[in-house]
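Q: What structure does this chain adopt?
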Amino acid sequence: MARAACPRAGRLLWLACLLPFAPAAGAAGAYELHLTSDGPATTGTEVSITASLVAKDNGSLHLPPSTRCRFHWVHAPLLLTGRVDEALSSTVRAVGTVPGDVPVSVWVTAARCGMCRPLARSFLVLPVTEFLVGKLDITQNTSLPQRDSYLTGTPLKISFLLHDPSNFFKAASFLYSWDFGDGVQLLTVDSMVYYNYSAAGTFRVKLEVVAEWAQESPEAGRGTLQKTGTFNAVLRLQETLQGIQVSGPSLIQTFQTMTVTLKFLGSGPLTTCWRLTPECLPLDAGECHPQPVTGTAYNLSHTFRAAGEYCFSIRAENGVSKSQHYHRVQVWPSSTQPAAFAFPCATLLTMTLAFVVYLSVRSSARDKDLVEVADFDFSLLSDKSPEPAPGARRCCGPCCGRPMLDAPAAEYLEVVRETQGLLSPLAKAARTYTV
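A:
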């Protein structure tokens, strides 16, 4: 089956290259042109660019090498130094003399018809820089889930990888200036160093590379050329979580809020969770709500409403390791319960109401006493006063003064005034009468 498909695909490609008047839409829809390069490139170095013609069905159809097409390149301002054409691919080698992004385009036509419509076309942008091209490679003998995260106390291997596919800098000598971001600097002639960070945190490694080599020219003679480059990498150093320290009371009363301070012996950021249980049991994932912690300390508060023995189960992890700790708390019944406040409030309210009733009754009794005493005196005066003599001037009791009263009535009135006052003393009980 495969042998039958290969000749058929070869015949189709051969017809596409030989028929100059074939429909362009049909030819363009059958093939794709893939471009690859070994850039970016440094000015003066050689770079290779390869174009490959493939079928659009992901290359499942085998295209025989006997089929040939023509590749048309546009690569200025790159200086062409070499070219290799094959049946279905073409590779050019060029040198960039001017820094910048250089567009490179290519299209494919039939081998015997350069003016035919292209079977496929493509392009790419090649970065060309006047500096060295490379990258920093950082490894450690541990594996962490976070990107660019490493452990403190473990040596880091930091290497500089020069990008030089054409082996242009094989005769150059290099000088490396390292800055590890924690105040330590180092100068080496080797592209690899080992460094151990003692403290956790985020650090930026900076490397400056200088390459020098000798070159002879007919005009200037023998001279020294130089290329430089600066490279950076951000590192996040973390410490393993060695434990959790808990600072807080272990004995408390009910209805009191207890605050516990958690101190994590490791670097952040961390994720912690806690659970209050009668017994100290390990916490599994999903048994408590996670709480993110940015630093290395966290305050935990809780109000106990029932007496008993409790245990705080605390778990924390920082992406490097995890730790778990327990803190026991004894809760005693409070000496002052909230229900005890009801009795003083009720007593005070009762006393206030009793005092108001007492004042009201007392005021009523005093008014009644004054009215009865006034009625008794005036009725006595009206009953005991003698009849006036004929021809004498009549006078009523309330209108006459004291000199016009008879002696018995005046004496009786004096006795009443001495024994009964109009206003009773405050200490004297109100007088009552029995009818």
